[in-house]
Amino acid sequence: MPSGLKTDAVRIPDGSARLDGDLHVPERAIGLVIFAHGSGSSRFSPRNRQVAEALGSVGCATLLLDLLTRDEEAIDIRTREYRFDIQRLARRVVAAADWASGQAALRSLNIGYFGASTGAAAALIAAAERPEISAAVVSRGGRPDLAGDALAAVRAPTLLIVGGDDEQVIELNEEAKRRMQAVVRLEIIPGATHLFEELGALEQVQRLAGDWFAQYLPRHSSRRGPVDMLDGVAPGEA
Q: What is the CATH number of the domain that holds 82?
């Protein structure tokens, strides 16, 4: 995490695979946001880490997760065969949600998802498969269309954020919005392209995402104090 925020290094099982993650839990967390990165990225994505820091400042616990193992990443760099394997990515997001639900220090928190690019589809599928714990979804420059039939099963309020100059992705998000039955809002940031690299664009994403999670994520009856211990966590700084 940037700015010296303390994180815990975690390993999350998905069958025989082990996924590396960075977990940050502020005091009195309002919920947990699981990050699902886009194709060819990882938990070290500077954009997602910047967003995670901003969400932490408004009380969200955050889990930045590698959706591919190290061996899969090495293969994908050469072949790109895993980055568009949406079902595999979605299964890993579900595994992270299940892992969090099994942690004594996290299980009382509702779960939100922040998905970028193809990761948005994985996040939406996870929300559809775990409706009882999934409270909100935010997509940044996402491909929600790749979630397919799962779109209609999503119940979590969903915010779709797209750059105003990302015309093809705008169309894909508009079509996905029409297929969804949950509360859905499409926000278009004028002048922004797919990666939101323009001055101030990512800050707008952070503000919109923070407001969305602050509205929909809290489970007010079970707000909790600081985390003391996480099962299977190796404390450290990331």
A: 3.40.50.1820
